[in-house]
């Protein structure tokens, strides 16, 4: 096991540094992982910049809610050295030390082996966003909506981009709502039939019924406006609150059209659901298409600046973080 390794460490709110740390013996019922890749999610940006109350553990603390890598030492019966593993959410980078480090020791029940044939790199192009997007699409399927028009809000974000790709692959007609006009070409390339400007002002309590379902990633006024535009007995799946946590609406979409509003919790999704999701993701997104879903690759030293840009609305989409040592990357 490597004796010294680099980590991005928060020593307090907005106190971010790259530090060289010493490896320690791993406790019982845990595995040591050589982390190869992570990603930057909106929640990571909130944590790194101190903008949101994401971290629920004492400082100093290593953030990062995603990681993928290779087991180098195991004290768990189900894992051996050489296993390629992934861990997203479940408290990673919030309640216990996260993925922005070259070596991590975890005991999480949400740890799982990667599907055969999926690389650690591709798994982190998807990460928490991919898990959330696939859970959203599966919710539509389970609701009986297996075709038709689906509105995706926050289409330039990680969940939005991946949801568009999945829905288009499955044959839905995708309408993408996005305020980042310069990304409309990319969004169309992922399979959106139509791209519209951001929906953020509710109109009538019940508007024209346009959509069979909605994948909402931003919440707030956008979610309220989307609810009013859904066809009878449609489903709205909600997974984000970038536009605000407060929802102001009426009961009319629910009692006059029978619309269902469902929340998606990818953070604590059961392990069996996770396994099903990753199998679907591997089936639906070809390896050569993965790079379409990423806005670029950064290293540990870049994370803070990208997170600040993301909070400022200047870095939409998914960023892959290459955690590996420089001599391996080159």
Structure description:
With 330 residues, the protein is of the alpha/beta class. Helices cover 27% and strands 27% of the residues. It has helices at residues 42-49, 120-142, 158-169, 184-189, 220-227, 252-255, 271-284, 303-311, 326-329; strands spanning 4-12, 15-22, 31-40, 66-74, 84-88, 103-106, 112-113, 149-152, 173-177, 194-196, 211-216, 230-238, 260-263, 294-299, 318-322. The strands form three sheets. Strands 3, 4, 5, 6, 7, 14 and 15 form a seven-stranded mixed beta sheet that branches. Strand 11, helix 5 (220-227) and strand 12 (230-238) form a beta-alpha-beta unit. Helix 2 (120-142) crosses helix 3 (158-169) and helix 2 (120-142) crosses helix 7 (271-284). The longest helix is centred in the middle third of the chain and has 23 residues, at 120-142. The protein is globular. The chain starts with a strand and ends with a helix. The mean pLDDT is 95.
What is the subunit organization of this protein?
single chain
Structure classification: alpha/beta
Series of secondary-structure elements, N-terminal to C-terminal? EEEHEEEEHEHEHEEHEHEHEHEH
Main sheet: strands, sense, barrel? 7 strands, mixed
Shape: globular
Question: Please, what is the average pLDDT?
Answer: 95
Tally of DSSP β-strands = 15
Distance between the termini: 22 Å
Helix segment count? 9
Radius of gyration: 20 Å
Which residue ranges are poorly predicted, with pLDDT under 50 across at least 5 consecutive positions?
none
Residue share in helices?
25-40%
Strand proportion, as a percent range, falls in 25-35%
């Amino acid at each position: 096991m490597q004796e010294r390794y680099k980590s991005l460490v928060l020593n307090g709110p907005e106190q971010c540094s790259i530090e060289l740390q010493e490896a320690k013996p791993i406790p019982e019922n845990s595995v040591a992982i050589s982390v190869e890749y992570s990603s930057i999610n909106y929640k990571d940006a909130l944590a790194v910049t101190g903008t949101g109350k994401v971290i629920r553990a004492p400082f100093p603390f290593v953030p990062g809610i995603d990681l993928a890598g290779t087991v180098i030492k195991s004290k768990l019966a189900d894992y051996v050295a050489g296993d390629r593993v992934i861990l997203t959410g479940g408290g990673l980078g919030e309640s216990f030390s996260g993925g922005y480090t070259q070596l991590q020791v975890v005991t999480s029940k949400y740890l799982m082996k990667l599907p055969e044939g999926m690389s650690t790199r591709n798994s982190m192009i998807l990460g928490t966003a991919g898990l959330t997007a696939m859970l959203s699409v599966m919710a539509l399927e389970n609701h009986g909506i297996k075709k038709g028009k689906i509105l995706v809000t926050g289409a330039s974000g990680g969940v939005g981009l991946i949801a568009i790709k999945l829905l288009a692959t499955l044959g839905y007609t995708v309408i993408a709502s996005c305020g980042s006009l310069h990304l409309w070409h990319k969004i169309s390339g992922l399979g959106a039939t139509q791209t519209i400007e951001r929906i953020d002002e509710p109109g009538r309590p019940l508007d024209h019924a346009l959509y069979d379902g909605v994948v909402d990633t931003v919440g707030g006024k956008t979610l309220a406006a989307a609810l009013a535009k859904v066809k009878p007995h449609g489903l709205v799946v909600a997974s984000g609150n970038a536009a605000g946590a407060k929802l102001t609406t009426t009961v009319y979409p629910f009692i006059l059209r029978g619309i269902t509003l469902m929340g998606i919790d990818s953070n604590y999704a059961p392990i069996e659901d996770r396994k099903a999701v990753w199998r679907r993701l591997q089936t639906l997104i070809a390896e050569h298409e993965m790079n379409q879903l990423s806005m670029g690759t950064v290293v540990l030293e870049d994370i803070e600046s990208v997170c600040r840009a993301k909070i400022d609305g200047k870095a939409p989409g998914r960023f892959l973080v290459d955690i590996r040592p420089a001599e391996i990357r080159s």
